Amino acid sequence: MKDKFFTFDGPISEDELITMAKNAIAERILKSCVFSSPDTVRDFLILELSNKPMEVFYVLFLNSQHQLLGIEGMFNGTIDGAAVHPREVVRKSLEYNAAAVIFAHNHPSGHLEPSKSDVVITDRLKASLSLIDVRVLDHFIVGKDGVMSFAERGML
After folding, report:
1. Which CATH number fits domain 34-149: 3.30.70.330, 3.40.50.1980, 3.10.450.320, 3.40.140.10?
2. For residue range 80-120, what is the model confidence (pLDDT) as tens digits?
């Protein structure tokens, strides 16, 4: 039997408690965070993406000091892919008045190696955003057991 925990609203399960804790940690990271290192981003992304059953493509919109302006799960896919549209990423970047972006998506399979389509869409997004002077700082792939950074591998 799973342990029960109590709140002012009554009992909650261990899974609900873990979800609440993850949300509180993610909120704390987002409130005070300057994404100045891959480790900071990695910590947030593991909480946000590692357990999603379908592929989701996120964009983190940053100002010129790399402070978070907004984060959006822009594209949802299936268990092995998500259609990403550069036009929509450019539009949202302008809406946020972003100076830089970080891309992230999960691989529900857990495999961290980028696919050929991951590399192609990263290049397309980078080219599209360069036209409006928005820098692409990194693209992370999140699996169940870790995170892979394009920038750390010299792929940007």
Report:
1. 3.40.140.10
2. 666 789 999 999 999 999 999 999 999 888 888 999 999 99
